[in-house]
Structure formats: structure tokens, C-alpha cells
Amino acid sequence: MHKLTDRWRSTTARLILIYGAFFALWGGVVIGVIHWQAASYLSHVTNDLIGRQASYFSMLDEPTLERGLHDYVSLETRRLNAFGLFDAAGKHLGGAVDALPAGVRVDGPVALLPHGLQRNDGRGNTSVRAAAVRLGDGHILLISHDTSIVDRIGTIILQALLWGLSLTVIPGLLGAWLLSRGPLRRVHAIRDATVPIMRGDLTRRLPLSRRGDELDMLAGIVNAMLDEIERLLGEVKGVCDNIAHDLRTPLTRLRARLYRLQQQFAEDGETGAMVAECTADTDALLVRFRALLRISELENQQRRACFGPIDLADVLREVHALYLPLAEDKQQQLELRLPEPLPGVHADRHLLLEAFSNLIGNAIKFTPAGGHVDIRARASVDGPWVDVSDSGPGIPPDQREAVTRRFYRAESCRSTPGSGLGLSIVSAIARLHGYTLEIADGERGARLSIHCRTVSS
Amino acid sequence: MSRILVIEDDDVTAREIAVVLGSHGFDAERVADGHEGLRRAADPGYDAITLDLMLPGMDGLAVVTQLRAGGVTTPVLMISALCDVDERVRGLRAGGDDYLTKPFAPDEMLARVEVLLRRHGQQRRQMLLCVSDLTLDLVRHVALRGEQQLSLLPTEFKLLEFLMRNAGQVLTRTMIFETVWGFHFDPGTNLIDVHIGRLRRKIDGEGQVPLIHTIRGSGYRLAQID
Q1: CB proximity list for B75: less than 8 A, separation 6 or greater
Q2: CA-to-CA distance for A271 and A264, rounded, in angstroms?
Q3: What is the DSSP letter of A86?
Q4: A 338-357 residues with CB below 8 A of B?
Q5: CB-closest option in A252, A259, A357 to B103
Q6: When comparing pLDDT for A288 and B98, which is higher?
Q7: A359/A390 Cα distance (integer angstroms)
Q8: pLDDT tens digits for A271-327?
Q9: Would an 8 Å CB–CB cutoff place A76 in contact with chain B?
Q10: Cα(A407)–Cα(A419) distance, integer angstroms
Q11: How far apart are CA A395 and CA A399, in angstroms?
């Protein structure tokens, strides 16, 4: 159903439909004009004929008129002609027409009587054209001609043209549907090709056909952009890797020399204390440096070797046990709620442990003493969710995206120790797995959830 | 005196490693490239080897692979610029005994070398560990301080085993986290301290000689200090 609406939404189908609508509208106008022209011509010819006949009869003397009227009726074998003869007061003297119809003026123009006129020969309910003339003796002669055929010809022309139009519109719609199939198939192919690119695989490109049409032009432009993005990212990454690599050795040297200094000075002396502080700072630097390297490594998306079927409940139980003492030390309640059964996931066990550790460690850190931290797993159609909710200050909506950025630390937690890299690592791990990290309001504080989406192979 | 072979191409790092090892009673010898390192490492006289994985000539992974193929069992601490877990797995599979990533703190390296030496020196895995009046019976799964039996959780038991097997040696938080929990990431918070704190409360009761000691800036050591 969805595909069908898609097809009608395509550009080709839309253009053909718009064109078809204009075509139908114009066809309607043409039909109208033809119908109107034909009908008025036929009407004019008939009126003219009746008018001439009436004036001819008015000029005849009585015996000739009688014969003429007899011929007028009898020679027309389909009995389409009729007449009525009336005296000056309108009293019927002869002929099939019984009474002078209201719409006919004596010596006036030919009148169209769509409902026919009163006849004494059992006919007369079809549309006629009639004219009345005053004869030399003061009598009135009315002649009428059945013109239902003329009117029917108009209807026939109209019907024929309408048929023609609808027979043009139906193949038009069918054509729109068929024509839109090809381009849509290619659009779907392009959409499928963008999925891995959006996931971060910049080596992929959009498919091109040999036709060189608009879609190919567009795909070509996007591919050129992707080339450029890949090149730039490669350059940036190269620079970062070089910096990282160049920093490793000096950092190792620095830490080693500080250690030697630390060995030489007693810690209670002023110099010794300063060296100890320097060492502690350097250690913090090393921790952040490693975390940064770790993120860039995760973002390289190379680590798929350790992926396998993982019991999510098991991983959560392990992390829960790891952090329980820490929470208890802060008089917090760290609760783990697992549904039975919880479906397994295809993941890297160590990375999942790291991601959940970071989430739970963060929650404990930002929740005041005596608070709650809940770890809850829930199953869904497209893979299980793991929610870590706390009773801390929460994360304001405008900062939710920023907290996964490297080194970002919310204004309210600048005094809390930490590197500001924890959620970046979680986010990188989630991306590597094709999972999503969602930050929302919990019942009491923040709720950070990982949706372990099942990726269909 | 234990002899340590340091295979490291950076002069300053190598010198600092040598100084640290030297100041802790080790005889450190330095080699700067892979081929020479492999040749010297084949000498059974060394007690341990620190091996940088990125070396000129021959990379460290090839060195350790060839050493093991040649039947040399000297414990090897691999030092790598790559902190990837895959890389670690590859290094350990090739025959390395432990893995440290650059940049590293020399005390961390020293602690790891000492644990390697200790582990290599033990012929059989001891099943009864004793430090002062603290006893850990791995067969019966019982821990005793003096006459009193300690009730330990499974993780606490593992933690105590690691501390006692390496009694007298400084163990860094990272080493504890890696060995006891098997995780290879930075736990960030004072997680290990809290776990040690719990164990300490169970082991070092009031009026007892404390056995678990905090080494500032480095880690922990379980020992009887007179």
C-alpha cells in the first residue's frame, strides 16, 4: 500500500497527472465548442427550412394550400411533419395539431418546443420546431417539424467525444503508473545505498545508470560530494592520528620523568607535593588522551571482529554487580529490572559492558546521595531497550545533543570530576552497533536509553 | 638480580624505563630495533622482556611470534600505541603475557613487570595463600583472618586472590580491573577504590594489623608491614 502511494507521489506520475488534467480540461472545452457549433448549425438549418416552408404556405391560395399541406404531411414518411389550421380566434379547423402552443408567435420566428405539442394522431411528445403564419383569409397556419433527431445528433457527438476523452485518460493514468515505476525503482536503489553511508561508511557511493538522466546527474553530484567529504575526513583523521601518535612518546617521557622526580623528593616537602600534583595532572591527561584515542578508534568503525551473540541480561547483571558498591557508598538504590525473557543481541560484549558502565557510572555520579538509579531492560519488536534512569538534576532538552559531544560538560556539573568523554564513548559504541542513544526526561531525573536494534542481515 | 630486556626505539623512553627498573633492583638492558631484539631475547638469561610493538626493522608482534616459535618462554610485556582490544587480543595470542598501551606511567609498567616475574617464577599454581594471619584456601573456598572466617562475595574472593598472589607488590587500579573483572576500559570513577574499601573493611577489622595499603598515585599493595 505504502509502495503504491509512493508510486503516485513520484515526479513522473505527478507530471503525467497534471498534464492529463490539463488535457482533459482542454478536451472538455473542445468538446463543448464542437457540440455547440454542431448543434447551433443544425438548429439554424432546420429553423431556416421551417421558416421558408411557412412563408411558402402563406403565399398559396386555398386549394393549392390544401394539397400542399397534404403533401407536407404525407410525403414525409416518418411523419415528422405536422400542421394545424386555426381561425383568427384560434379555433381548430384542421390538421394534426390541436391547439396553438403558447410558445409560438404568429408571423414570429421559428420556436423550439422541447416538450412537443398537442397532436391528435398520438404523436407529439418529442421536441419539435414550429412556426405560425397568418394566411390571406385571416386563418392561422402552424407547421411543425420533429427535430428530436437533430438534438440527438448533438448528444451523440457529445457522447462520442466523452468516450474518446475517457479512453485517452485511462491509458494516460496507466502510463503514469507504469512510467513512474522505473525512476522509483532507482530512487529506492539510491535510498538503499544511502543507509550504510548514513551509518558512516563513506566508501559507499550512489548507484549510477548508463542513461545519464536527471537522477544520474543528481547521484553524480552527491557522489562527488561524498568523495570530497571522504577526502576531507581522511585528512582530518590523518592529522588527528599523527597528533595522537606524536603525543604518545612525549607524554610517556613526561610521565616517566615526573615519576623519577617523585622518587627523588619526599612527598611531604614542597617540591615533592608539587611533583605529586603534576603527576596526578599528567595521569588525568593520560586518561583523557586514551579516551580520545578510544573514541576515534570506535569511530573508525573497524571493530567488528569481536561481534557475536550476547546475553544482554547477563551483561546488565555484571555491570549492576560492578556498580552496586559504588551506589551503596552514596546511599543510593541501584535497581536492576529485567523482563523474562530478554532477547539476545548481536554485539561486542566488551563494548556493551563499557557503554553500560559509562551510563551507570554517570548516573551514580550525578545523582545526589540517597537517590535512585534504575537499570531497566524492556523488549520491543525491533530489539530490546536498556534504560538507565536516575533521580539527579536531569539533562535540559537543549543540552541533550551536546552532551554526547567530546569534552562537553553541562554548566551545572562543572564542579563534578570527569573528562566529559563518557557519553561520547557511549554514543560511539552505540553508533558502531547501529544502536541509538536516546536522552529523555525520566520520572525523577534523566533517562538515558540504548535501543539495541536488531539489524536484519 | 632479575635481568630485563627493554626493546624500545625511543631513546628517552628507553632510558626512563631503564632508570625506573634499575631503581627497583632490576638490571635493565636496552635494544633499539626488532632484529637485534629478537637475537638478544633468545638468550635464556633474561627474566622478562618489555617489547614495543612499533619497532624499526621488525615489528614487535613478529618478534614475539618468533620467540615463542623458538621455544623461548621468557614473559613478555607488550607496549603498544594501539589501545584497540582487537590489537590486545592479537598480541596476547601471538604469545605476549601482558599488554600496556602508550602513553603509560612507568609505575604501571613496573607493577606489570613485577607481576609477570612473580607469575613466571611460580612453578605450580598455589592453592593455599597466606599473608600474615590472612589465609585464603582456594580448594575449600574459605578465607580466614586469624581464626575468624570471612564472608566474601565471589568478586571479593577473586580480588583478594589477586592481591594475595601478588602480595608485597604494588597493583594498579587498571591491573586490578583487568585481572579481577576482565574489563579493558577505564572505569572512570573511584570504582576500584570502593571495591577495595569493602574488602578492606572485611579483612582489616578493628584492632588488627592492616594488610591492604594504598600506594598514592599508583594503586594498592597487600602486605604485612612491620
Answers
A1: B47, B48, B49, B97, B98, B116, B117, B119, B120
A2: 10
A3: E
A4: 350, 353-354, 357
A5: A252
A6: B98
A7: 10
A8: 888 888 898 888 888 888 888 877 877 776 655 667 888 899 999 999 999 999 999
A9: no
A10: 6
A11: 7
